[in-house]
Design brief:
single chain, 328 residues, alpha/beta, Arc Repressor Mutant, subunit A, Rossmann fold, 3 domains, 5 strands, elongated, WH-like_DNA-bd_sf, RpiR-like_SIS, DNA-binding transcription factor activity, Transcriptional regulator, RpiR family
Length: 328
């Protein structure tokens, strides 16, 4: 049986597609044709679906480099989905974006079903993560982990709702590893913390935007005191320029949020990887400490599945406050 997307003529167009597609159909043609494409063409298709606004503006060399394919593959891909070439594909893609719903999500368009929205959003995220992983330098992650592991103190700075949460998340993870770590979101405390840093310390600054004036000032102060500055931010931002180690968080622009889901997820993954790399450097000594920590939490923690633990904790607190004898 012939596949629905096997080449049917000398142009290499898959069977089942019209000789040409309109602006409103080009994204659907890419999505429906992925399964029948070669691996290299599939990477191109995923790139176009994951970041169509960038693809419209990029030239053939930039697309080929980012997808990890040759320039002729781009042309073959365009013809495979019913376009005359890359120029025709980009014109139709621009039209599709104009007809779509970019104010909600770059990969979601008017008229799509719930199932299509789920597939397109998750597919877009998968593409973004794969692209971010290819461009991330493991050597810089190693440098950051090594600096954190040997630091006397690690201060995590984040300004804004998302960055504040991420700074606290990193601090909590490092704290569990037995490291002296703090998290600050208040501009005043950030300056105080930065002023007390030394060359034995690390300052981790988290800001996807990378342009917050109060955060930049605190980073300048910390760097002047000799601290090693690690930045989780977009490349070529003022914050990136100040850092000794930059972990770039470059992802497509979000349609609705300044710091969108893509940026949120890659920063969380970077923090997770950093924590793991630091833990691995601590060797077998970490195993005993983590086992002890887990034992304490299982024994005394109140966020367990067994509700009696929580109830017992409240009974003890009430008995203490009211001066009553504790009951078993």
């Amino acid at each position: 049986m012939t596949s629905g997307f096997e080449p049917s003529d000398a142009t290499g167009r898959p069977a089942g597609l019209e000789d040409s597609v309109g602006a409103s159909d080009v994204l659907s043609a890419i999505r429906s044709g992925l399964d029948g494409m070669s691996e290299s063409q599939r990477r191109v298709g995923q790139l176009f679906l994951g970041d169509p606004e960038w693809a419209v503006k990029a030239n053939v060399e930039e697309i080929a480099t980012r997808a990890g394919v040759s320039a002729p593959t781009i042309v073959r891909f365009a013809r495979a989905i019913g376009c005359e070439g890359l120029k025709d594909l980009k014109l139709k893609l621009a039209g599709a974006l104009a007809l779509g719903a970019p104010f909600l999500h770059r990969s979601v368009h008017v008229g799509e079903t719930a199932a299509e929205v789920v597939r397109n959003v998750t597919g877009s995220m998968t593409t973004v993560l794969a692209d971010w992983q290819r461009r991330l330098d493991p050597g810089e992650l190693d440098r950051a982990a090594a600096a954190i592991n040997r630091a006397r103190r690690i201060d995590c700075l984040g300004t804004g709702a998302t960055s504040h949460f991420l700074a606290q998340d990193l601090q909590a993870r490092l704290f569990r590893l037995g490291l002296t770590a703090n998290a600050f979101s208040d501009a005043h405390f950030q300056l105080v913390a930065a002023a007390t840093l030394t060359s034995a310390d690390v300052l981790v600054s988290i800001s996807f935007v990378g342009r917050m004036p109060t955060l930049l000032r605190a980073v300048e102060v910390g760097r002047a005191r000799g601290a090693t500055v690690i930045a989780l931010t977009q490349a070529r931002t003022p914050l990136a320029e100040l850092a000794h180690v930059v972990l770039p968080m470059d992802v497509p622009r979000d349609a609705t949020m300044l710091v969108g889901t893509d940026a949120y997820v890659v920063q969380l993954i970077a923090i997770e990887v950093l924590m793991i790399l630091v833990g691995l450097r601590q060797g077998t000594s970490l195993i005993g400490r983590m086992n002890d920590l887990h034992h304490v939490l299982r024994t005394y923690g109140i966020d367990r599945e067994d509700p009696s633990v929580l109830h017992a904790g409240w009974r003890q607190m009430l008995a203490s406050d009211l001066g009553l004898p504790e009951t078993g």
